[in-house]
Amino acid sequence: MSDGLLQGTQPRVGIITPPANPTVEPELHALLPEAVAMYTTRLPVLPGNLQQRNAAYAAHYSPAIASFGALRLDALYVGSTGATYALGPAADRALSEELAAAAGGKPVWTASRAILEALAVLDCDTLCLVSPYPDWLTELAVAYWEASGHRVSEVVKLGEIFRAYELETAEVLAGLARVHPSSGSAVLLSGTGMLTLPAILARQAGLKVPLLSSNLCGAWQLLRSLGLPASATLRAAAPRLAATLG
Q1: Contact 187, 130 (CB under 8 A)
Q2: Are residues 103 and 43 in the same domain?
Q3: Per-residue exposure over 178-199, b if at least 16 CB sit within 10 Å of its own CB, e if not
Q4: Measured distance CA(158)–CA(231) in Å, rounded
Q5: Burial of 134 (C-beta count, 10 Å sphere; 0-12/13-18/19+)
Q6: Which domain CATH number covers 158?
Q7: Looking at CB atoms within 10 Å, which of 82, 125, 212, 238 has the fewest?
């Protein structure tokens, strides 16, 4: 660890994540270089089922930013994809702008907007969606991507109930084995709570199209906002995305 990190002189990113999400911090820690210091705050534990909690999370993003207090942050990432699918891309953008204002003008990226930026840079207008969600949330995801101008050519579901936090890499790999992407498309492993990095590292070369996940795109967009190059892990997981960084 460098002296700069210990002295707080290196770039800092703030991460906002649902309270029980076990994956955002480990994946971002692996994907971000040591040059970036990462600080996390968690959303409150809310009552209700998954659908009710997802609908309520966005109202807690600004208070989550405020919970960092006077800590200097250079960019922030909201590590929740499902919560913004119901908003649609236009409202998602408006929310990000509102959150940036709450963060003193620093960029704030929701996971879904980070994915949108990655798809634009990669010039991919067709998606194969691998979903760990129940039907209603998978449908919201498809509607979000179609409203953003993307064609969802294939949906591979990893179950009928929400198990994103519990899925094993073998299950993710089995889902990827069912995907048949066409040239010019991208495969998206949706959901910040699903562990995706081991599966991406194992399969991205064999797919011949970009293999993306929420947290991978989030890490890439944070580095892009900071003007920093990719880490070795990000280069291995997403070489085409990593090549777009400084």
Answers
A1: yes
A2: yes
A3: ebebeeebbbbbbbbbbbbbbb
A4: 29
A5: middle
A6: 3.40.50.12500
A7: 125
In the block, which residue shows the tokens 């990095």? 197
Domain co-membership, 102 together with 220: yes
Q: In terms of residue numbers, what domain contains 203?
A: 118-213
**203 and 227 inside one domain:** no
What does the block give as tokens for 39? 């600080």
pLDDT digit string, tens, across residues 39-58: 999 999 999 999 999 999 99
Cβ atoms of 130 and 189 within 8 Å: the answer is yes
For 105-139, what is each residue's pLDDT tens digit? 999 999 999 999 999 999 999 999 999 999 999 99
3-class DSSP state for residue 176? helix
Q: Which residue has the tokens 């880490």?
A: 231
Beta carbons of 172 and 195 less than 8 angstroms apart: yes
Residues 167/199, Cβ–Cβ less than 8 Å: no
Query: Residue 46 contacts by C-beta under 8 Å, 6 or more apart in sequence?
Result: 52, 53, 56, 57, 60
